[in-house]
Amino acid sequence: MKGNVLTPEVKENRQAGHDIDPVFLNRWSPRSYKTDPVSDEVLSRLFEAARWAPSGSNEQPWRFIVARTQEDKERFYPFIAEGNRIWCEKAPVLVLLLSKTISSRGTALRSHALDAGAAWGYLALEATRQGLVTHAMGGFDPQKAREDLGIPSEYEPQIVIAIGYQGVKEELPEALQEREKPSTRQPLESLVFEGVFSQK
């Protein structure tokens, strides 16, 4: 599986400051996709991983709307920003991640977006283990998605996710080819503070 050892492109662009599993570095967000389909079994493994994400009071507020057929994907295209459509239309799977904003007790669920984000993280890591790539998009119209897909008011659209097998960067528009590599991260000391908040 792809997540077990660092891929050459990751080795070239990323280096962990501490010893962690390679899957965390191998997960990145390519824009070039092959049109090869993702099997039901492999796709189910991604959602199974997401199912086991942590959530406040075990509410499990995440929901996924999956588009794999051309008909279903064409329902997604109108609410996805043009800059994302340029590349994501080749992806064999598009997913809209929702979070339920009301708890099972009928109260506002404060952690709904955080919990849905945890489910997305689990899905993305399992996708890497399965030899797939994923790319989350915030560039979409949530209200249009709500209208086009019949989403009830208590669910909040969060991100659109492209899922598939990585293609070659040369198939992307030239401006995107330059960006088609794993990104780095801020140093740990700028993210973790001891005792009180700090700006460095």
Characterization of the model:
- The protein is an alpha+beta fold and 200 residues long.
- It has a domain at 34-168: NADH Oxidase (3-Layer(aba) Sandwich).
- It is 34% helix and 14% strand.
- It contains eight helices and four strands; from the N terminus they run αααβααβαβαβα.
- The chain has helices at residues 8-13, 22-26, 40-51, 70-76, 82-88, 112-129, 142-149, 174-177, and strands spanning 62-67, 93-100, 133-137, 155-164.
- It has a four-stranded antiparallel sheet, with helices on both faces.
- Helix 3 crosses helix 6.
- The termini are far apart.
- The model has no long low-confidence stretch (mean pLDDT 96).
SSE inventory with pairings:
Layout: H1 8-13, H2 22-26, H3 40-51, E1 62-67, H4 70-76, H5 82-88, E2 93-100, H6 112-129, E3 133-137, H7 142-149, E4 155-164, H8 174-177
Antiparallel strand pairs: 1-2, 2-4, 3-4
